[in-house]
Each structure stands twice: as structure tokens, then as C-alpha cells.
Design brief:
alpha+beta; 5-stranded mixed beta barrel; 3-stranded antiparallel sheet; globular
């Protein structure tokens, strides 16, 4: 498990599909990336969510675009004519994160693209574990690329870090927002998914993923936080949530029963 770091060399365009207004850019490695900008929305916390979520999804062996740390200079996008976007780019100078751009990918639709119940159940489990509120019918954040299912956009995960809620307490959240999950109607194998997902990752792996977070994202906007203390909060949340998965699985079963 690792995170590469590259320099953005060419601004291509804004990506207006996402609510956080990411940018399409090219890095020094020659690849194009959907760049998630720290100047948008919830700032560095969304970058933390995107990175942690994406790496955990990858650790569970789901397909996710490669996440790369991207350095954005004061010259990146300087020719962009839209003042709002220009302001956003200037606020985002420094370290951001990008997802490998999947050219030609299209949005997954469960009504058109078949998905088996165990896979659907695993994805529902995964999003309840991450407290990801953004895998809805309106915005599934799943793509078909090269005839395979890919999971994208995890910046709305870990919503506990937008409040002062204790991470140990937040880990026991049943996550009622799972009622909006696009795959919940298809997830009729949640008990088996819980067993398999709990076996697929360890607290040690989760801790190693948290350790990959750049320290500069963990200090806060005014450098008021200790990076190691913030890392510990995410470790507590993840390991305790994994150990108590029964809480959010029961909530998902309850919400699914109401749907049916």
C-alpha cells in the first residue's frame, strides 16, 4: 500500500459533474487525473475522506482508480477564464489528491447493469463502514470501465470529522443514511457480506492506511492540530467500527426491510 506523489503540469478543464468542482489535469507522469481540490467544499477533510476511503476500498479488493498525491503550483490553470474556478485553483495551491481519469467510463445503473446480491451487499457494507453518504440513486458514484465495476468519489465519507464528536462514539453510529443507498434493494446477503468483509481486512492494515495520510492535511487550516493525534482518531474510529460492524449491518437490514 503506497501513495505516489506527482507534479501537475497541465490544466485541461474543470469537471463540472461533481459538486466539489474537481479539475481535469495532467501530471508529470503523463497521466490524466480528476484532481480533488482542497480549496473546495470541506477543504482538506474531503481530501482525507477521499484518500482514506479510496485506499480502504482498494484494500478490500474492489476496483478503484489509482489515488495519487498531486502538487498544484501557482501557475496551474492560470489561463482559466472563469473567475470562480480561478479562485478555487488559487486556494488549492499545494498538495491535493487525484484519481486516475477513466476515459470512456459511464455511470453504473443497477436497472441496466446486472449485479449479484453478494457484491451489492458487500458494497452496502463498505459504505456503511465508511459512513459514505454519497452512493445514492441520484449519484451512485460507480462506473463501468473496461466492462468492470469501479467505485469512485469517497470524499463524503467519515462525516464524524466535520463535528466535535468523539471518534470512539462515532464508530458506533448505526448509519441510518444507508436507507438512501442505490444498492440496498439488491443487498439480500448482508449477513454473509459482514462475515467476508470482516475477514478481508485487519486493524493493522487499517492503521497502515491511516499512516499514509500527509501530515499537512492533518494540522487543520490554522495548524492547530497535532497530526499524530488526528491519525489516532481515525485509527480508533476504523478499528472500533470494524469490531462493531453488527450495529450498522442491523441498521441496513432494518432499512432494507422497510424498502421491501
Amino acid at each position: 500500500m503506497e501513495l505516489r506523489r506527482e507534479k501537475l503540469t497541465r490544466y485541461i478543464s474543470p469537471l463540472r459533474e461533481g459538486g466539489s468542482l474537481p479539475a481535469l489535469g495532467e501530471a508529470a507522469d503523463g497521466f490524466k487525473y480528476a484532481v480533488k481540490l482542497k480549496g473546495a467544499g470541506h477543504g482538506m477533510k474531503s481530501l482525507i475522506s477521499e484518500t482514506l476511503g479510496g485506499l480502504i476500498v482498494k484494500a478490500f479488493k474492489f476496483k478503484v482508480p489509482e489515488l495519487v498525491l498531486l502538487d498544484l503550483s501557482h501557475l496551474f490553470g492560470i489561463t482559466e477564464p472563469d473567475k470562480e474556478i480561478q479562485d478555487l485553483l488559487r486556494k488549492s495551491e499545494g498538495l491535493n489528491v487525484g484519481l486516475h481519469f477513466m476515459n470512456g467510463a459511464f455511470t453504473f445503473d443497477p436497472a441496466v447493469n446486472p449485479i449479484d446480491s453478494l457484491m451489492a451487499s458487500k458494497i452496502v457494507w463498505l459504505d456503511a463502514f465508511l459512513t459514505n453518504v454519497d452512493r445514492s440513486r441520484q449519484n451512485p458514484n460507480m462506473m463501468i470501465w473496461n466492462r468492470e465495476l469501479w467505485l469512485i468519489d469517497h470524499g463524503a465519507s467519515f462525516y464524524f470529522h466535520h463535528s466535535d464528536k468523539d471518534p470512539s462514539e462515532a464508530a458506533l453510529d448505526p448509519f441510518p443514511y444507508i436507507k438512501n443507498h442505490v444498492l440496498l434493494p439488491y443487498a439480500d446477503n448482508l449477513a454473509e457480506a459482514d462475515k467476508l468483509m470482516r475477514q478481508a481486512i485487519t486493524p493493522r492494515t487499517l492503521n497502515k492506511i491511516v499512516d499514509l495520510l500527509p501530515s499537512e492535511w492533518l494540522t487543520g487550516d490554522n495548524n492547530e492540530y497535532d497530526p499524530e493525534k488526528k491519525r489516532e482518531e481515525y485509527k480508533i474510529f476504523l478499528t472500533k467500527r470494524l469490531a462493531n460492524s453488527k450495529i450498522f449491518v442491523e441498521q441496513a437490514l432494518h432499512e432494507r426491510k422497510k424498502l421491501l
